[in-house]
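Most newcomers find our protein records easier to grasp once they have seen one. Read left to right, the backbone structure tokens trace the chain's path through space. Once this layout is familiar, the rest of the handout is easier to follow. The record below serves as our worked example for the rest of this section:


***
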Amino acid sequence: MQVLAIRLSSMGDVALTVPVLRGVLAANPGLQITLVSAAHLEPFFFGIERLNFYGVRLELYPGLSGLRQLYKKLQAAGPWDAVLDLHSVLRTWALDGFFRLAGVPVYRIDKGRKEKRALVRPRNRQLKPLRHTTQRYLEVFEAAGLPGAVAGGEVIKANPRAMASLERFLEKNGLRKEGRWIGIAPFALHREKTWPLSKITTLIEALSKEENCRIFLLGGKTDAPRLQHIAALYESCHNMAGVFSLDEEIALVHMLDAVVAMDSFNMHLAALCNRKVVSVWGATHPYAGFGPLNGNERFIVQVPPGELSCRPCSIFGDKPCSRGDLACLEKIDPVEVLHKL
């Protein structure tokens, strides 16, 4: 059986397909899956047997006519026994429609949008755990007659070539794996999910006093200047933001003993590499179904809703703080995070 699965973005959500793909493939030996996603995210899927990665650059397929072109390319790469839409947005709805017109069965994720709105509405908020995103992915496969499970443990693997490249970099910079290595990814896409840098600095200062402990700051190229100012203050702190390719970053995460992250891609990456993840939550809440996997829910740090009735105020952290003071983040003490580490 050959199926086409589609999850075009974003990084964290694409990464969360990995444990589901591994679990479904393990349960269905005759299955071949082709995953359509952003081309630069291919390193997530290294070493998954019977999975073909179909990388696309969405900017090359603008508008409905562009999506029609993409559909024709995907259709030519078949034939497909089913299409599984793990994204359910306007782009994928268009692709779904083209495949349905061609007679291909299409199965689409239930994102639980109504439940999520109830979770964050100011009045009569229904604060209860919703199904995890990985479970929602799995339900799409089950609807297509493909049972499975969400695989645990180290599901995102390090590419040996990338690991060798990383090791050369570390050796060149005099970094040898001794003692405890802690990664800190202090940024998220939205301010309402980002712990203040002053508190990150306090945490780094405390960790820098530990014997034989090194801190690695993680982020993108645009984060590098801000993080360099912090790294320069502490001999044991190293700014790795924007230094590596994605597959090299995955290799680095595999070398870390623990990671401190926001509700962000880095949280999911570290958890799926089977690292200990201490995650800091502000405007969003793990109940929305985006919490860290592999037992890392034990290391979540957040202000209890009973202490701050306005949270969670959004699913993705993209709404301005109604109080204006980001209390959900300001109230989190670095000592709490240090204790979880």
Observations:
- The CA atoms of residues 17 and 134 lie 7 Å apart.
- The domain at 160-340 is CATH 3.40.50.2000 (Rossmann fold).
